[in-house]
Request: fold
Amino acid sequence: MLEHEVRRLRPVLDAPLTRLEDQRDELAKAWLLRVVEESSLEEIERLPIARITRELPELIVDIIRAVGEGHGRAVLEPDGREYRRAAQLTGLRGRDAPEPTEIVMDIAALQSVMIDALGREMPDAESRALLKVVNRIVTSFGAVQAAAVGELMSTRSRELESLANTDALTGLYNVRYMHRHLRHLLGLQQRYGHPFALLVLDIDGLKRINDAFGHPVGDRALLGVAEAVRETIRSIDTPVRMGGDEFCVLAPDQTAPRGRILAGRISAAVDRIPDLEGASVGVSVGVVSCPEHAVEPERLLHLADEAMYRAKASGERVAVAVPDASSGSPDNGLSGSGESS
Reply:
């Protein structure tokens, strides 16, 4: 039925479409003026005018002839005309990766320009009025499409950022995010003097659990530790799975003594994890603070690791690092794990 209607209208459309082909340069100029009106001076400077002048008129003729052929719908094939037209339109701004919303609005602007011109070529007032309504619809839907694409891209960007910064198993932050946030806390400390604590946790005997009970039970142990950490820390603290059986917590505005208290609470929460088919779970925790122990990220992590291994060897569960002489902070007797909580 639709094809029949298109064929019936073809004699009416043939002459106006042919005249539109003759106006290709004027249509390209009208599109360019619309783009310029909606662009900043910096964006206008980047527009490849010579390329637009060379390619857009040919693209307009290609689209007009496709309309004249009266296809019911476009067949989207990777090497088809529609993809070639899309590639041309995408490149008209002269950038390898234009914003998706710009592409939608550019296409809507070209549609509007061509419908306006076709309306001027139609023989009767009723047809011209109908095309004006169609043009308004095209313009409105172009704006809606651009907004929808922008929201979709924003959502996808947030999802990708979350995937890039999150440990897949536990849902905690990963080591990539930890390094970035550690640098942020160091910047705050250097500028405003805010201390922070860094805790490194290691699960005791995870390899033994994996060997004796299987990796699914080992994964449940990791999830249990992650949940214990998440439930114990403050909302402003950052829980991290560094990889394997090692975790980390970054605690803003915390000194070594308070970091040790937090470590003790985390260790106690881990002890309360229900038995995993007979496997018991525990953690050893090393605590450092900045600037008390060190002011360099690598040094802080190294000292926290050393304290964690000292806690593991002594069986005390929690140990605070020895202050680093290079940090300029005096040894105030907070090293080791004998400090009361």
Q: What stands out?
A: Confidence is low (pLDDT under 50) at residues 71-76, 327-341. The radius of gyration is 33 Å.
